[in-house]
Write a structure and sequence with these properties.
Arc Repressor Mutant, subunit A; 56% helix; single chain; 2 strands; 6 helices
Amino acid sequence: MIKLSVRIQYGLQAVLELAFKYGGGPVQIANISAKQKIPIRYLEQLMLILKRGGIVASTRGIFGGYALAKHPADITLLEMINLLEGPIELIGKKMKKEPVLYDAFAKVQDDLKKKFAAMTLEDFVMTKRDSDRTIIYNI
């Protein structure tokens, strides 16, 4: 089973929380932690990585906190993965010994990167907003 790391999962949850509140001012880290159920100490470490990577910006003071440093449409899933875990690598040097495997995994890797590069935080925000607007009628 291939699984996304906890770092990526929590990092995405944190930036999505900020994306949902984009334009509304900074969000305190304690609020993100509570809403997304991310341990605050771990979240602090993630936010430092995200700040260094230019994804989030922080504001000090009583009304301070974190906000996205750029529009959600300008932050891709690939950018987040690369920042939090490094580049996606499905192929290794040893795989070159078997060109059939190498070629197959190289294609999958390229396709995966293209799909992740095409997905933005804005896409997730719009999907959530659409699902929140869905009205269910029971008769």
